[in-house]
Design brief:
CATH class of the domain at 507-640 and 696-713: Mainly Alpha
Radius of gyration: 38 Å
Helix content: 40-55%
Number of strands: 24
GO molecular function: actin filament binding; ATP binding; microfilament motor activity
Family: Belongs to the TRAFAC class myosin-kinesin ATPase superfamily. Myosin family.
Bound molecules: adenosine-5'-triphosphate
Number of helices: 29
Distance between the termini: 90 Å
Largest sheet: 7 strands, mixed
Strand content: 5-15%
Mean pLDDT: 85
Protein name: P-loop containing nucleoside triphosphate hydrolase protein
Structural class: alpha+beta
Strand order of the largest sheet: 6-7-21-8-17-11-12
Keywords: Actin-binding, ATP-binding, Coiled coil, Motor protein, Myosin, Nucleotide-binding
InterPro entries: Kinesin_motor_dom_sf, Myosin_head_motor_dom-like, Myosin_S1_N, P-loop_NTPase, SH3_Myosin
CATH architecture of the domain at 507-640 and 696-713: Up-down Bundle
Shape: elongated
């Protein structure tokens, strides 16, 4: 947000006053348990300790010097890019973010990152006027904004004909999904401009590239016209046929935007942290035709939290669609045999049912309309809700047990409903759940299940049904939106959960943290490449270490295959071992890596592993922190266990939709793999599964992630980090320790650490000369002088050590902190110059005053002397005679 500007002189005076106050003391940030950091100044230093006077309250604290962080001069307050701070420490970073957030500036750059702090209120930052403000503008021409990131991606794509990606991460509730929507809003608006603006507007003042794409971008563009917005809400009656090019574009854009409510209905849920929390990660690619218009879109999804359909904490809800269907389903509910209310369904009535401010009925209409716009036929829509309803019915299947602990289904009517909806025979379904057939040696035998086993089977079925249907839903959206063309380029937006450290971390956290480790490695490598390029461009020799490599051991520890096996492969192996348990898996890990280090053929990730001391699990040293994982239930989670009797029944469903969801299981032989009866794994050799057989959750995620990474590697990335400011979902409050934790986890501090190792502060020659020439008077002769040479002479005179600066071909580079020192020297000098100037001015005015006083004194004395003479003469007779005759003595004129 733009702050109200003070007049230039008022601003300068304010800055000077602050600077003067600042210069009087040695200001530092003092660590504080509650507030994170507090301001204070060093009163005195004694050995390794400092006596600090706290700015708020004035009390004294004795603090070790190493714990203190230097404060940046006030000139750096509210800087738009944290990288510009000369003291790059955690305290200064968070102070700057807090200052900015307090004044409504939720966006701040941190080098390559855009940091976005959730405002928890609606801010006027996303209007059409703001979109126009960011069109065709460079990053430094406007305050930091998510639109600036989208604009840069768009311009880079046009100029360089290269695919772009915008990576948005953050913890739950930080604003990732909102940011993703803003990016798509911006891209949709500017792509509309491309088509709606007249050709005469088509030259961009800021872009000079001659590519047809760039030249098609309008100078100012038309405002995002209201018809565009109306179109988003238009009735779904628009059919693709017979539309003009412009009309088709409108439909496609609407479809892209309407894909979101569908994904949110099926993939989002209310959680304690966020009323509309995405329970999956997504990578949305928007493709653009060479003329800059939107050509299509495609969505990839990751790690859906499918367990939510069966369990969740009491204060949370299942996926929105369950409640929407129950609220608005009407006659559809009858067809789905959903006669009851929410309370009547076991999978819904154990936890929260309503969310403040959310009208499920209204959301239902929005969902239906979105499905229509994206092009789901009524039959396809029915299939989606068929699965939702089937899950609710499965949840209500009552299972009891006989005396021999064999599971039985006392009331088959519920199973009948399920089977009716899923198009499968009741008898086969019941048998598959209660008494599946397994191969024992060479014989097929029915094996009775316990009540718990049968219930687990049913919940596994629900999770699989939901996940598969979600996958099919996304595929169907992609069919509607995806129009690949060899000439198109894309901007991909990745919205994925950030690093997670909970009290209890389990398999899901390992997968998400592994993903984040890879993404951070990608960032570090990208930053390294850019820095290298900048140094090379500027002709600076600097052996910059590739910090992407720092993370490799941890990544190897998790994902390695082959001889140096990693945790995920180890887990896969255990999943197919007879009698393996979570404990044997944990022991195996410890056996591999918990021994003494120092052997030659040591696993690259060994150093990053530690066995857990008090619980069954292990610790991994991630870039963000050391995280302890508990391994309870990992084998089951990884196998995603669904009895192949059940899957085969579903694969043979008379309902095509259901059969296609399970098509991969259709020709599966019933197995009796070493994992035990009914296990879906078929082993061929020690490591790895039979080709075409099912993959574990870990394998699937590894493959998906590898595909994502290779896509990202083929793009020019942009990074957005979303931050939750406080735990109360309230605007205006910044909980510093919480924010610091996130900055640490999301790699912002890591990015700063890396930047500090190089030369983070850099100034063009002209700017350096303008600001600091005052420190080197007479060094640069009047007239023209080459900028580089001028800088060289200046730094020589300033007596800077060679190691703390580098002179490039157009810029001068400094190590962190050097600019603060130069600033201080400049301030001292200016202080000195101005004090002397003031002294001279005061002397001059004082002298003038004295001169005036002296002149007055002389004048008074003259008057007095004359008055005295007159007084003496006045009564002298000769004088009286003289005055009387003198007029007659005066010669008469005329
Ligand atoms: N830029 C913003 N302006 C106004 N409100 C916002 C903004 N960003 C986030 N919010 C608020 O914060 C809430 C949570 O944001 P969002 O759903 O985007 O978080 P998320 O990071 O995607 O979380 P999750 O990982 O749980 O899906 C939103 O519902 C909205 O109320």
């Amino acid at each position: 947000m733009l702050l109200p500007r003070l007049s230039q002189s008022a601003e300068a005076a304010r800055a000077a006053a602050l600077q003067a106050e600042f210069n009087e003391k040695k200001w530092v940030w003092v660590p504080d348990d509650k507030e994170g950091y507090l301001a204070g100044w060093v009163n005195k230093e004694e050995g390794d300790f400092g006596e600090i006077i706290m700015a708020a309250g004035g009390d004294f604290r004795r603090v070790p010097l190493y714990a203190l962080s230097k404060m940046n001069p006030p000139k750096f307050d509210r800087v738009e890019d944290i990288a510009d701070l000369t003291f790059l420490n955690e305290a200064s970073v968070v102070h700057n973010l807090r200052l900015r957030y307090g004044s409504g500036a939720i966006y701040t750059y941190s080098g390559l990152f855009l940091v976005a702090i959730n405002p928890y209120q609606s801010l006027p930052l996303y209007s059409d006027a703001i979109i126009q403000q960011y069109r065709n503008k460079r990053r430094d021409e406007n305050p930091p904004h998510i639109f600036a990131v989208a604009e840069r991606a768009w311009v880079n794509m046009g100029e360089e004909r290269e695919n772009q990606s915008i990576l948005i991460t953050g913890e739950s509730g930080a604003g990732k999904t909102e940011s993703t929507k803003k990016v798509i809003q911006y891209l949709a608006a500017i792509a509309t401009d491309v088509h709606t603006s007249p050709p005469s507007h088509s030259r961009s003042p800021t872009l000079t590239s001659s590519s047809s794409f760039v030249s098609s971008m309008p100078t100012t563009g038309l405002p995002r016209n209201s018809s565009f917005r109306r179109a988003h809400n238009a009735s779904p009656s628009v059919s693709g046929s017979g539309l003009t090019a412009k009309g088709r574009l409108g439909l496609l854009e609407r479809q892209i935007l309407q894909a979101n409510p569908i994904l949110e209905a099926f993939g989002n849920a209310q959680t304690q942290r966020n009323n509309n929390s995405s329970r999956f990660g997504k990578f949305v690619r928007i493709t653009f035709a060479p003329d800059g218009s939107i050509a299509g879109a495609n969505i990839d999804w990751y790690l859906l939290e499918k367990s939510r359909v069966v369990v969740r904490s009491e204060a949370e809800r299942s996926f929105h669609v369950f409640y929407q269907l129950m609220a608005g389903g009407g006659t559809l509910k009858e067809s789905l045999l959903l006669g009851g209310a929410i309370e009547d369904y076991e999978y819904l009535n154990k936890s929260r049912r309503e969310v403040d401010g959310v009208d499920d009925l209204h959301e239902w209409s929005a969902l239906k309309s979105a499905l229509d716009i994206v092009g789901f036929t009524p039959a396809e829509q029915f299939d989606l809700f068929r699965i939702v309803a089937a899950i609710l019915h499965i949840g209500n299947i009552a299972i009891t047990s006989t005396r021999a602990d064999d599971a039985i289904m006392p009331d088959p009517s519920q199973a009948e409903r399920v089977c009716h909806l899923l198009g499968i025979p009741v008898a086969e379904f019941t048998r598959a759940v209660l008494r599946p057939r397994v191969l024992a040696g060479r014989e097929w035998v029915s094996q009775a299940r316990t009540r718990q086993q049968a219930l687990d089977e049913l919940s596994a079925l629900c999770k699989t049904l939901y996940e598969k249907s979600f996958g099919r839903l996304v595929d169907r959206i992609n069919e509607a939106l995806d129009r690949p063309s060899s000439r198109s380029t894309f901007i991909g937006v990745l919205d994925i959960a950030g690093f997670e450290i909970f009290e209890i971390n389990t398999y899901e956290q390992l997968l998400i943290n592994y993903t984040n480790e890879k993404l951070q490695q990608f960032f570090n490598h990208h930053m390294f490449v850019l820095e290298q390029e900048e140094y090379a461009r500027e002709g600076i020799h600097w052996d910059y270490v590739n910090f992407g490599l720092d993370l490799q051991p941890t990544i190897d520890l998790i994902e390695a295959t082959g001889n140096a096996i990693g945790i995920l492969s180890c887990l896969d192996e255990e999943c197919i071992m007879p009698k393996a348990t979570d404990l044997t898996f944990t022991n195996k890990l410890s056996g591999l890596w918990a021994g003494a280090t120092g052997e030659d053929d040591e696993h690259p990730g060994k150093q990053k592993y530690e066995p857990a001391r008090f619980a069954q699990g292990f610790l991994i040293q991630h870039y963000a922190a050391k995280v302890e994982y508990r391994t309870d239930g990992w084998l089951e989670k990884n196998k995603d266990p669904l009895n192949d009797n059940v899957t085969r029944v579903l694969a043979a469903s008379s309902e095509r939709y259901v059969a296609t969801l399970f098509a991969e299981y259709s020709d599966l032989p019933v197995s009796s793999g070493p994992g035990g009866p009914g296990n879906m794994f078929t082993v061929t050799k020690k490591r790895g599964l039979k080709k075409g057989a099912f993959r574990t959750v870990g394998q699937r995620h590894k493959e998906q992630l590898a595909s994502l990474m290779s896509q990202l590697q083929a793009t020019q990335p942009h990074f957005v980090r979303c931050i939750v400011p406080n735990g109360h979902k309230k605007p205006g409050r910044v909980d510093v320790p919480l924010v610091l934790d996130q900055l640490r986890c999301n790699g912002v501090l890591e990015g700063i650490r890396i930047a500090r190792l190089g030369y983070p502060n850099r100034l063009p020659f002209v700017e350096f000369r303008q600001r600091y020439e005052v420190l080197t008077p007479g060094i640069i002769p009047p007239g023209y002088m080459d900028g580089r040479e001028a800088c060289r002479r200046m730094v020589k005179t300033l007596d800077l050590d060679d190691s703390i600066y580098k002179i490039g071909t157009s810029k001068i580079f400094f190590k962190a902190g050097v600019l603060a020192e130069l600033e201080e020297r400049r301030d001292l000098l200016l202080f000195d110059i101005f004090s002397r100037l003031q002294a001279v001015a005061r002397m001059w005015t004082a002298r003038r005053q004295i001169k005036k006083i002296l002149n007055r004194a002389i004048a008074i004395r003259t008057i007095q002397r004359n008055a005295r003479v007159y007084g003496e003469l006045r009564d002298w007779p000769w004088w009286q005679l003289y005055t009387k005759v003198s007029i007659h003595l005066t010669p008469q004129v005329g």
